[in-house]
Amino acid sequence: MKKYTNTGNKDTRSGFGAGLTELGQKNENVVALCADLIGSLKMDDFKKNHPERFFQIGIAEANMIGIAAGMTIGGKIPFTGTFANFSTGRVYDQIRQSVAYSDKNVKICASHAGLTLGEDGATHQILEDIGLMKMLPGMTVINTCDYNQTKAATLAIAEHHGPVYLRFGRPSVPNFTPENGTFEIGKAVVLNEGTDVTIIATGHLVWEALVAAEALEAKGISAEVINIHTIKPLDEEAILKSVAKTGCVVTAEEHNMLGGLGESVSRTLSLNNPAPQEYVAVKDSFGESGTPDQLMEKYQLNNQAIFAAAEKVITRK
Amino acid sequence: MKPNTQQLNDLTIQVRRDILRMVHAVNSGHPGGSLGCTEFLVALYQHLMDRKEGFDMNGSGEDLFFLSNGHISPVFYSVLARSGYFPVAELATFRLINSRLQGHPTTHEGLPGIRVASGSLGQGMSVAIGAALTKKLNGDNHIVYSLHGDGELQEGQIWEAAMYASAKKVDNYIATVDLNGKQIDGTTEEVLSLGDLRAKFEAFGWDVLEIKEGNNLEAIINGMTDAKSRTGKGKPVCVLLYTEMGNGVDFMMHTHAWHGKAPNDAQLESALAQNPETLGDY
Questions:
Q1: Is the pTM of this model over 0.90?
Q2: Cβ separation of A74 and B138 shorter than 8 Å?
Q3: Which domains can be identified in chain A, with CATH numbers?
């Protein structure tokens, strides 16, 4: 199978910070807003380089979303930054009315998504945000897999007109996608071609899917691995093409199985080409405190879980 | 050319007729607060705001207005139409299927004059602040206005925004509160007392002024001119506008009953008789 090299673990949020720093130099209409989490979101450089375009809102996320919506009137491109929980659930109605329904060009950038936030526990580990955001008409939903891709996505969404939810995380994870690679919104990336099973992963689970595919190969199972960085709009063509070949699918995401990538894939398949599917996702529960690795192990969101799901789904063909 | 007093009076009466006929036609909508804010919106759009011809979403080089209490859409639509943003005849489509005049204002159907959706309360002050910040970034010396219901101030986001506006010196912004003392379930005193609003906004660092006769065009123009003169001095400006819900229709005044209720045929006839046609019905 195709080999991918981890060039060194890095956090995806730093990819966002690097992308924002570059945007600050490239696009004078980009403004950044933060709700008292500059360090966590890696927005320090943008703040330092462009103090006039940086807005510290304080711990008032609803106000931040509203201000961002208003700032688009006159041509600014606001990037808001806070944890995923406070970027979505806390401000759902503000996003719904002032951003999505009003079609405002706001980029909601959300760090510390999912279980890998770790020790802070369930109050901060949102596992429902993809579902919340993908249900909003007109909202683009992106969940990037590593540092390089997060940086590329940050640059790409500034060029896209319309509301975007960009989801990334806290921990250092393998960085393996091309440096300064292009990012095409809504376009799946086939990382490895295979014939027996399709593994569709997003976010931190993409690397785990590659590890699982290697282990499957050692057992004589050929796995196709697809990185779905854009959950909405979903690249249905790529999914259908792959599943038409393999006949079964495993979806993997750091999210509740209700409302996430897996359900979007299920809908696509049920409407076009029903096929057996296994979900690697949180089984409708809250998270808890622990190290990221412990949590991903306990909630079965790692390469071993993907491997087991692949073996199982093949028997259901 | 700004309209003279007679023209403003005529327009005010015609807008009242529009409001009454719009809500009557679909037996729904919010006439009480609309009638209470008629003089204010007429004065704002016809005398106070520096507006460009036509409509551009970015609103650069002109004053902007945001209606935060979106349920008083009838008065907003009427004043927008009669200020030239869209055909007056379109008022007949209010709340009908496939209309641009949705129950609450929205940009979604592309109605000129609307810059953000409102209806879910408490969000308009934040949006107005954002627009004011962009004006500062763009070196645009125009003013941003917003209007809020008094009951709406029970929403927490208003106070997040109020804290921000003074702390960050958003001084190209005038927020007006429609103080009619009434909301759906009763008086604001009964539902959840707002306390001393002047003291609250002053404690939040705003420059506060009051317009005691909020249904008097001259008083509104004088008060808002004063408010404009206070912009650019380091503080956001709050106008407490004392209004009478249902103003101009005797049986709709001094009660909260007409907050969200349309008149029947006989009531419409009586209400229109109190407001004889001036500029022509839609």
A1: yes
A2: yes
A3: 10-173 (3.40.50.970), 189-315 (3.40.50.920)
